[in-house]
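Sample entry (95 residues):
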Amino acid sequence: MKDLIKFLKKYGGWQWFSKVNQKAKKFIKLFHYKKVIDRGNMCLHCRKDTKFGSGRFVNRHPANVYNMELGVEENGYCCDECEQEYYKDNPEIDD
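Predicted structure, serialized as tokens:
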């Protein structure tokens, strides 16, 4: 604690510390705060329903996607059609 007080006195005192602390809080809010939206049974790529009886229930996969337009993370599912299309577009990824 004594070292902190010496440092603050030497480099601008508590005002400097307060300004840095406020900037750090803003940074944490902007870059570390994540808003998560649960999309339920919706496919996060094609937005079609994957609930039981839809024909997409059996081969669906749990998925998390960051939506850049909304600036949020979405939780839901990925249907098998979208999954297979992804692997066709990215042949370097192994199944």
